[in-house]
Write the structure tokens for this entry.
Amino acid sequence: MLSRLIDTQHRRTHLDIVLVQPGGGDPLAIVERAIRLMRERVRRFGAYAGRAVLLDADKLGSNPERDRKIEPLAQREGLRLIWQDPCHEALLLRHLNGCAALRPVDTARAAEELQRRCANYRKGMAALRLANFIDVRGVLRAAAVEPALDDFLTAIEFPRD
């Protein structure tokens, strides 16, 4: 969806979106898989200007020892971490008008609130369908309350006008 929104403004940035599978689990394992995938893509396609991964914060705390390894590994690999607190549905919720400040306490409540406010939402919804309720203004609403997302949008020259 971000790629489509950027392309309407400029074509200086290309996002190579890769779904890290399996997702939704141990954040360190996801970061490690993302790094392996990125190394493979660099071998195939050449250097990338930046790297980022979205992670669900609700998975933090299950294994504090593993959690402590995430940030140093990401820094060493030049990987930007964008934590979705507590989950992807909560981040999507913050894109909606009047919802930027909402902070559901857990994943279930985030999913319920998103579904309540956007009845057509389905987990794993395709970007084309997400675009029916999230636009540039929505992305900027979320970025206004999510510093890591805002930094990422700046890096990819996301339209601000």
Summary: Helices lie at 2-7, 27-45, 64-77, 88-93, 107-117, 127-130, 136-145, 147-155. The first strand starts at residue 52 and ends at 56. Residues 143 and 150 are 5 Å apart (CA to CA).
